[in-house]
UniProtKB/TrEMBL annotation:
Transmembrane intervals: 27-45
Superkingdom, natural source: Eukaryota
Protein name: Coiled-coil domain-containing protein 127
Organism per entry: Micrurus lemniscatus lemniscatus
Keywords: Coiled coil, Membrane, Transmembrane, Transmembrane helix
Coiled-coil ranges (or none): 79-138
Amino acid sequence: MNNLNNPPPNWNIQPNARNNEDHGSKWNYALLVPMLGLAAFRWIWSRESKKEIEKEKRDVYRKFSFVQKELESKYRDIIIENRKMVAHLELELEKERNRTLSYRNALISQSYKLVEERRTLEQERTKVEQEKQILQHSGAAGALYK
């Protein structure tokens, strides 16, 4: 066993000599037990607090990762919804373009028909004018007009 009244030279607690004797004071070591108790308590406390800190870190990390996954999921849902909306609007735009193109083609074809009808009416008119001229210059009606 250790003799606390005769500590090795590297210890920081040295006995006080009393009455010029070589024996140390008992009261020097009276604080040793509470100091050792405090050191043990500090060591245990630090280990326990480290465990609690690690536990809290894990809990915070778990909550953070859950929130992050939830936000990423919402972000993906919003992106998917926006892509669907864009696709739908592109389809609507394509329908409107096709509709305007068909209206344009219908107007062009109708204008061609009107131009053709006008030409045929002009031809019929000139033909009627020619027949009128012929009838004016020939026969009994021609004598009337002369």
